[in-house]
Amino acid sequence: MPNTHYTKEHEWVRLEGDTALVGITDYAQTQLGDVVYVELPAIGTTLDKGEEAAVVESVKAASEVYAPVAGEVVAVNDRLVEAPGIVNEDSEGRGWFLKLKLNDPAALESLMTAEQYKLYIETIS
Amino acid sequence: MLNRQGRPTDVGEPVEAIPETFTGNRALIIEEPLIFESGRPEVTGVDLPEAPKVAHRLGGLVRSGPIGLPGLSEPEAMRHYVRLSQKNFGIDSGMFPLGSCTMKHNPRLGEKMARLAGFADIHPLQPLSTVPGALDLMERLAQALIELTGMAAVTLTPKAGAHGELCGMMAIKAALQARGEGHRTVVLVPNSAHGTNPATAALLGFQVSPLAARDDGTVDPADVLDQLTPDVAAIMLTNPNTCGLFERDVVRIAELIHQAGGLVYADGANFNAIVGKVRPGDLGVDAMHINLHKTFSTPHGGGGPGAGPVVLSEALAPFAPVPFLRREGGRLILVEHDFGEGVSPFGRMAAFHGQMGMFVRALAYILSHGADGLRQASEDAVLSANYIKASLADVMSLPFPDRPAMHEVLFDDSWLEDTGVTTLDVAKVLIDEGFHPMTVYFPLVVHGAMLIEPTESESKASLDLFIATMRDIAMSVRRGDIARFAGAPHFAPRRRLDETRAARTPVLRWTKPVAE
């Protein structure tokens, strides 16, 4: 998707007006295996780029989800708390983690495009 | 054929399919319900006189009905626990190569000593004058730990490895604050560290700064230097590390940290690889916990509780927690107050003096092995791990093939790529083969990790059987003959459990089934 950007830590961020949805990539959910627990930030939390935003735990490992860009948390996907399997089923759609109000939407340009991320995964796997 | 008593002696025709049994039991493997399912509240195994009526002041808090505890006769209770114990696999049943856990044999001598009435039947609140033997044992253990580690002091009180980490890092924090350097808030932790290391640092309010390993699996001093800001309080280094590799630049790393005004915490969980060979004090370590319960016998599953004494450098010794041992007028006391000049304990880690039963077992282990025996145990543990490494290198895959292993050897899952078989499948097949699985998916820095720690307890015959089994498993994978992996274990009392469902919807409380 053209308005979706990716990080080296395997988060995706999709711009929708002046807010953006954030989640973990399909590659990340495959590597993690079955997700069993998701911890989300409080609405209103302000996050710097790279700051810990959420925690995702699978049968194999626990891992942090970092804010790909700076912003304020305006919504979280509460459904993941009850049904963390959604992250495995549809990580880049219904499995979104949080919605950020961006300080600077242009900051997304520093992240990878879908094409660049695809090449990046090939170099690390 | 019939024998002279008219009893058939032949075995009959073998059948292809194994029939189900009426009871669900399979000979010696007996199904066992929960005690709440088999017991009945109205049954009791003891005949007690009726309790006398006494006045109470509980008011509305007094219990109004029965609490429904399951009652069983003595033979029923006995069978319940014996049957459960028969489903358990421990180091006394077979090889338990669970990497990082050091599942070594637990000598009977230590168990015998720990049960001596003078150690087992004393109470922490007894007057010290009635327990000089116990205090003397603690003193001797402390001296042995100081000698083996080359450190200045030891605190015996922490109750386990992670508790020891917390103690050591609290001593570091106290020392920095005493120096007026409370601004040091960053702790460097290699990615291959035990998960408890960053957790300990975070619990104490430090900011964790992760350190990546270089290609050979160890920490590069140049990377340490890069991250060495004036805010660095300490590094937490596991040596040998969780990849089973010796951090060969540990001395240089400690020098760099010290030059920058920081302190060095060593995670001593893998001390069993180097006891009698390397003294952490000579490496520049300021604090290190020792898992008495694995390095000096009684691993988990072996019966005993944990104990995590922490050895401290000259710089940290004054901050050791209370209580500590001191000799006064020829006799030992446990110091709780009146610390003395220049001593400022940061607090206390436990109500009393620590885990007495483990002190006895550890000292029994140390004295019965002697200096030469302790050294040989370390050497044999390393030799066993390298024997497994060399014997399986051609059929499995090693992330760090060029470095000798220490007490444990780490494989990754690239030998399983595109075979449809996973690390978890291999672990489950090992259960069918009568082994406890190795540690899997840890450390996280290696994909599909299999961490094998045989310990010095296994004979060569036992190692050879394990190696032959692993080779047979690897050959099945190569042939594409993967039926044995699907749904394994096939022969355990329970088949493969649904870990995902167990984690997502755990049932944490037994509720009485509703009659249909």
TrEMBL record, chain A:
* Cofactors, names only: (R)-lipoate
| Residue span, Lipoyl-binding domain | 19-101
The Gene Ontology biological process terms listed for this entry are: glycine decarboxylation via glycine cleavage system; protein lipoylation
Q: Which PROSITE patterns match?
A: BIOTINYL_LIPOYL, LIPOYL
User: A Pfam family name for this chain?
Assistant: GCV_H
The family annotation for this protein states: Belongs to the GcvH family.
Source domain of life: Bacteria
Q: Which InterPro entries match?
A: 2-oxoA_DH_lipoyl-BS (IPR003016), Biotin_lipoyl (IPR000089), GCV_H (IPR002930), GCV_H/Fam206 (IPR033753), GCV_H_sub (IPR017453), Single_hybrid_motif (IPR011053)
Q: Bound how, and how many: what does the cofactor note say?
A: Binds 1 lipoyl cofactor covalently.
**In this entry, which stretches build a coiled coil?**
none
Self-association or partners: how does it assemble? The glycine cleavage system is composed of four proteins: P, T, L and H.
Which is one Gene Ontology cellular component term of this protein? glycine cleavage complex
Q: What is this protein called?
A: Glycine cleavage system H protein
Residues with PTM N6-lipoyllysine: 60
What role is this protein assigned?
Answer: The glycine cleavage system catalyzes the degradation of glycine. The H protein shuttles the methylamine group of glycine from the P protein to the T protein.
- Which UniProt keyword terms apply here? Lipoyl
UniProtKB/TrEMBL annotation, chain B:
| Keywords attached to this entry | Oxidoreductase, Pyridoxal phosphate
GO: which molecular function terms?
Answer: glycine binding; glycine dehydrogenase (decarboxylating) activity; pyridoxal phosphate binding
GO cellular component term, pick one:
cytosol
Q: What is its EC number?
A: 1.4.4.2
Please write the reaction equations for the catalytic activity of this protein: N(6)-[(R)-lipoyl]-L-lysyl-[glycine-cleavage complex H protein] + glycine + H(+) = N(6)-[(R)-S(8)-aminomethyldihydrolipoyl]-L-lysyl-[glycine-cleavage complex H protein] + CO2
One example of a Gene Ontology biological process annotation:
glycine decarboxylation via glycine cleavage system
Aminotransferase class V domain: residues covered:
180-301
Q: Which residues form the Glycine dehydrogenase C-terminal domain?
A: 377-478
Q: Which NCBIfam families match?
A: PRK04366.1
PANTHER family under this entry? GLYCINE DEHYDROGENASE (DECARBOXYLATING), MITOCHONDRIAL (PTHR11773:SF1), GLYCINE DEHYDROGENASE, DECARBOXYLATING (PTHR11773)
Job description of the protein = The glycine cleavage system catalyzes the degradation of glycine. The P protein binds the alpha-amino group of glycine through its pyridoxal phosphate cofactor; CO(2) is released and the remaining methylamine moiety is then transferred to the lipoamide cofactor of the H protein.
Q: What is this protein called?
A: glycine dehydrogenase (aminomethyl-transferring)
